[in-house]
Amino acid sequence: MAEEYRVGGTCVIRGCVPKKLFVYASHFARDFETAKSFGWTIDKAEFDWPTLIANKDAEIDRLNAVYIRNLKAAGAELFLSRATLAGPNTVHIEAEGRDITAKTILIATGGWPFIPEIPGAEHVITSNEAFHLETLPDHITVVGGGFIAVEFACIFNGMGVDVSLLYRGEQILRGFDDDLRDALHDEMIKSGIDVRVMCDVMSIEREGEMFELELKTGHRLQTGLVMYATGRRPNVTGLGLEAAGVEQGPSGQIAVDAWSKTNIDSIYAVGDVTDRVSLTPVAIREGHAFADTVFGGKSIAVDHSDIASAVFSQPEIGTVGLTEAQARERFESVVIYRSTFRPMKLSLSELDEKMMMKLVVDGVSDRVVGCHILGDGAGEMAQLLGIAVKMGATKADFDATMALHPTAAEELVTMREPVKD
After folding, report:
1. Rounded to the nearest 5 degrees, what angle is found at the Cα of 271, between the Cα atoms of 265 and 272?
2. Which CATH superfamily is domain 121-230 in?
3. pLDDT of residue 23
4. 405 included as an active-site residue
5. Per-block mean pLDDT, blocks of 10 residues, the chain (421 long)
6. CA-wise closest residue to 274 among 110, 87, 147
7. Which sequence spans correspond to the domains of the chain?
8. Taking the model in full, what pTM does it have?
9. Which of 5, 118, 177, 416 is least surrounded by CB atoms within 10 angstroms?
10. What's residue 401's pLDDT?
């Protein structure tokens, strides 16, 4: 195994693990506010960014060491070096200055943040650098509308920073259910985030410690930091794919078949570098299927349908299956069940945050083909709902399930009246 930076990959080193730690940290301001309505007197709470960074770094160091220890215990030889393909059966280890030959090569180099080419692009940071900022400015502008952009906008907002979120599309979170997108947009605005859609950045200029953005709308925006979260691309630059004859797609993604094999029999690829479904558990499952297929005597192809996912926004999103729009394209009859309510946890407080749950049902088979949740614990619920959807549960199965009261999740089995078309 060759790794040029740290062992653990995008998720552990510069992705979902440190991000989730930031999400936890950003929740406390609202939790303190809610605590007052339950009789708790909270002395003046202060947030210290350097302390969070130091503790986060220590946890990432621990995980990095665990992965290295596990690899060595498994008998793997680890090269802490950049590696490139030198042929269909050869890998060049740069730090060692040597070539290694192998019957089988697996590429799992992940993805990398993409920054559009605009004047002033050299001034921006990405999620990679956001985990290592020395200080937090008073105002941060996040450019993008995907889950990374939305999550960091909510994180910085929860830490007391004024945040602007700029997205060039009609609504944030393209690809998610429209009701979820609209509801989260409203909640983000209520929390104080300046969300602007149909808003593209033309250029960025530095003015001392500040930055000024020229927007396509004709307006100008001053900010203390500009973070771009405008998508990720397969991490293949300089990898030597051409030398090995590996076929790539239009975005550089490595083309693979259902068993993760490239057009070269000796070379396989898994994870974000293939640009199939860019989620950590998917990459893990693809890697496991590769090992089973090539070395375990089993032929296993990963099923990429009905994958549960979460957006750790505030409030968070949990979803599995088809959106309403996707279902209407696929089925002749679609029935929608939707409920919007104020969660019990906030019933004593002055916070005006709504929770939403939605079931998308095939009107012919009665099968639940999509579940979408906005609110606390949405991700945890979506994981369990993923089992039901994967098993083909019907709306009648949901209705026959006894509610667990008082919980927010009970709404999933008590929605009886469909939404009128």
Report:
1. 115
2. FAD/NAD(P)-binding domain (3.50.50.60)
3. 98
4. yes
5. 94 96 96 94 92 98 96 96 96 96 97 97 98 97 98 98 98 98 98 97 96 96 98 96 95 97 98 94 97 96 96 98 98 98 94 96 98 97 98 98 97 96 77
6. 110
7. 9-112+233-295, 121-230, 309-413
8. 0.96
9. 416
10. 98
Supply 64's token pair: 């990095």
Indicate the fold that domain 309-413 takes in CATH. Answer: Enolase-like; domain 1 (3.30.390)
Pick the CATH number of 9-112+233-295 from 3.50.50.60, 3.30.365.10, 3.40.50.300, 3.30.2320.30: 3.50.50.60
> What tokens were used for 53?
């960074």
CB atoms within 10 A of CB 387: 12
- Residue 361's nearest CA partner among 322, 388, 391, 399 is 322
Query: Of 185, 219, 304, 405, which residue is the catalytic one?
Result: 405
| Residue 110 in tokens | 């992940």
Q: Note whether 9-112+233-295 and 121-230 share their fold.
A: yes
Q: Report the 3 state secondary structure along the chain.
A: CECCCCCCHHHHHHCHHHHHHHHHHHHHHHHHHHHHHCCCCCCCCCCCHHHHHHHHHHHHHHHHHHHHHHHHHCCCCCECCCEEEEECCEEEECCCCEEEECCCEEECCCEEECCCCCCCHHHCECHHHHCCCCCCCCEEEEECCCHHHHHHHHHHHHCCCEEEEECCCCCCCCCCCHHHHHHHHHHHHHCCCEEECCCCEEEEEEECCEEEEEECCCCEEEECCEEECCCEEECCCCCCHHHHCCCECCCCCECCCCCCECCCCCEEECHHHHCCCCCHHHHHHHHHHHHHHHHCCCCCCCCCCCCCEEECCCCCEEEEECCHHHHHHHCCCEEEEEEEECCHHHCCCCCCCCEEEEEEEECCCCEEEEEEEECCCHHHHHHHHHHHHHCCCEHHHHHHCCCCCCCCHHHHHCCCCCCCC
